[in-house]
């Protein structure tokens, strides 16, 4: 949010998010709606004013890929919810990078880090979106047709429940669209920037 704070009054940005990054740009849209030209959700979580994270998480559970060798860390003790998760080699190669080049899968495995987990309640409390602010920003959703982490059915369900201004579909892409279809995604982003100029 520091970057958004540092922008001059007459400067506007295009925000692009992937996966759970959709939550972060949604918050930026709410706080800095006058500084955001458009927000592009690339197979990303896309909450809305009447579509909070608790509601989103119900869809996530319904269309969830098998967790395979995903590991959970219980930093607050075994009787409390997990505090961190980390994708194992099977989860990464079969659910996230299944259409990506092998060397990128290997690199991802070497660089993978634990991801902090928050309760639905914590996210809903800190991410309150309004039609006047969040809703005033152009939203574009890019569907990954063959994504398994956020399955196509889940992506379409989000779009139906929180319609964006425009939808793009990328064929033959896994969850990591920027790795499996980088040129296609880059072309789409440039085209969208021109279309919504």
UniProtKB/TrEMBL annotation:
Coiled coil: none
InterPro entries per UniProt: AB_hydrolase_1 (IPR000073), AB_hydrolase_fold (IPR029058), MES/HNL (IPR045889)
GO molecular function: methyl indole-3-acetate esterase activity; methyl jasmonate esterase activity; methyl salicylate esterase activity
A single GO BP: jasmonic acid metabolic process
UniProt domain AB hydrolase-1: residue ranges: 10-184
SUPFAM superfamilies: alpha/beta-Hydrolases
Superkingdom of the organism of origin: Eukaryota
PANTHER family on file: METHYLESTERASE FAMILY MEMBER, SALICYLIC ACID-BINDING PROTEIN 2-LIKE
Protein name: AB hydrolase-1 domain-containing protein
